[in-house]
Amino acid sequence: MVPTWRLRTAFARRLSAVYGTEVPAYTTLLDVTARINEETVRRDGHPGHLGGLDRVTAERHGAIRVGTPDELRQAGAVFAALGMHPVGFYDLRDGPGAVPVVSTAFRPLDAEELERNPFRVFTSLLTPDDRRFFDDGLARRLGTFLGRRTLFPPALLALAARAEDGGGLPDADADRFLTLATDAFALSAEPVDRAWYEELSRVSAVAADIGGVTTTHLNHLTPRVLDIDALYRRMTDHGITMIDRIQGPPRWDGPDVLLRQTSFRALSEPRAFRETDGRVTDGTLRVRFGEVEARGIALTRTGRTRYDALTAETDRRTAASDTTGSDAAADHAATARAVWEAGFPRTERLLATEGLAFFTYAPALTRPRDGRRPPDGLAALLDQGWLTARPIVYEDFLPRSAAGIFRSNLTRDTTRDTERTAAPYDADRLAAALDRPVHDPFARYADRSLTTLRQARRALGLTPT
Ligand code: OOG
Ligand code: NI
């Protein structure tokens, strides 16, 4: 019997192998990432408090894009077999880098499962009923095209259902399941209908990538790096052109929070095209890319509001400056750092006591037994050495960075008529499509933190909260 978490680990490994053959720059990225991680551990010591090195080395997130609620539900069934559940709702249809999708991330929920293998897949659903992007006629034709394709073969879905019910699969079935699941996300050799792909591209490159082909594919696979600034420089030295900056919080002297990401465009990939006269020709498409990320501490809602305010303040200040090119990137980094130094706590302890970030708590084992009674407040418990706090790693995504990742890799802007009405999408509508609950990321972190705090307080003889 292969249990769920082993299926997940094997799936992540197989996808990584396939993606490496499809996108050679990904292999370079993995090599550089592994080297940087080793160097960082040698320099700074073990990153234990934000996940062990084994976890970090194996850690990946992928991104896929699907066209219909049915396809999303089926993707959800495949991921459920791997112990990955929908968490969070991301609406990427607004703002300067708007794309016609809404998204969730499939990932393990529990701490032990995350520690075993935290594989996650950012999954986006096309929104053809959003009239700002698609008119009636195009939406109807998209519906017809998508309704005819099958992304996940019935045999795969049958095995997925058995794996979900049974918490795993017998060896032979596991192998078959993993083969079918990996194949479902591999690039297809099927010719792309050029006219149809072009028509969709005029609306949105993302719409063409989703609705212009008969299969889905992994869009990127992202390793986790411990020093993303070093990685950025090293990849540039390898001759790979990175996007102009690292998205998310700046590099600074305080704690690493949330998520910092950067990416590079993959080279064009050879694809077969079907022309209007039926001939099949060779061509190229350039839609996939490489991405890497560094993960920090999960923020509470209050912490997140602070983060969003600091980001907005950085934007305001950089918009006022008139530098361009690499000067602009350096300027942005310096401005962001200054904004953070003025507005964000500089220590983990302050993040904990101000309720800005999530930690797990445990009674300190080292405290001398001096007959004193523990104080009641969190700050005093931490200061006087009664409790230790360990950061909870941020396991999710940032909508603004996601939009940046989408945008930085598009050659054409999406056409959007903001006079028309948006289609109403929210987490509930996504949950209905999935036929599964969409979990609230904040509630997951809060639960875990509070459970450990209650236990720790009980162990110290205090009232649980
Ligand atoms: C997903 C983009 C979002 C991230 O890391 O924020 C994403 C996509 O390109 O399909 O993967
Ligand atoms: Ni990504």
UniProtKB/TrEMBL annotation:
Family matches, as Gene3D superfamilies: Uncharacterised protein PF07063, DUF1338 (3.10.180.80)
Pfam families in the cross-refs: HGLS
EC class (word): oxidoreductase
Statement: the UniProt record of this protein carries the keyword Chloroplast: no
Reported cofactor(s): Fe(2+)
SMART domains: DUF1338
InterPro entries the record matches: HGLS, YdcJ_bac-like
Key words of the record: Dioxygenase, Iron, Oxidoreductase
Enzyme Commission number(s) from the entry: 1.13.11.93
Entry annotated with the keyword Iron: yes
Annotated family: Belongs to the 2-oxoadipate dioxygenase/decarboxylase family.
Protein's UniProt name: 2-oxoadipate dioxygenase/decarboxylase
Naturally occurring in which organism (per UniProt): Streptomyces catenulae
